[in-house]
Amino acid sequence: MIWYSLLVLAVGIERLAELVVAKRNTRWSMERGGIVRGQRHYPWMVALHTGLLVGCLVETYVADRPFIPGLGWPMVVLVLASQALRWWCITALGPQWNTQVILVPGLPAVRSGPYRYSWMRHPNYVAVAVEGAALPLVHTAWITALVFTVLNAVLMVVRIRCENEALKLLDERPSR
């Protein structure tokens, strides 16, 4: 179980790296007149993502969940794929990427990288959903996977509605 703890720790470190990038991008956006939207749901999002990491470890250790190779290894692949998709999103959005919804007046909507596909308007949330199910299932923490997935689905309804409202304003401008 040590290697699983290290995997969860690595995902936690990745989340901290995201926060560093987000803080830098927030500063960049605010210097350009950025407007923060949807602040009420943001603390819930932070709590949910923190709970995912804690839940993975607590359930695995307390319930003595086994590693089942036929489930665990494919889930590791999905965790890594979700990380790759997440960082593709972060790279494509550049300084416009953030953990919060920040609209910078006058900037066009990004239509490159994974955002060029009209059928996947929010690819970062695909990464979040996949990771939220896969990370706990690496070590059969199915309760954590289920609870995160349900709560994340509820939260994403609010978050995506908030982002779509912001994107409508950007959609009226030419894309880059």
UniProtKB/TrEMBL annotation:
Cited Gene3D superfamilies: 1.20.120.1630
Principal subcellular localization: membrane
Instruction: State any GO CC term.
Output: membrane
Q: Where in the cell does this protein reside?
A: Membrane
* Keyword annotations of the record: Membrane, Methyltransferase, Transferase, Transmembrane, Transmembrane helix
Which Pfam families does the record match to this protein? ICMT
A single MF term (Gene Ontology):
protein C-terminal S-isoprenylcysteine carboxyl O-methyltransferase activity
The keyword Ion transport is annotated on this UniProt entry = no
Transferase among keywords: yes
- Per UniProt, what is the membrane topology? Multi-pass membrane protein
Question: What name appears for this protein in its UniProt entry?
Answer: Methyltransferase
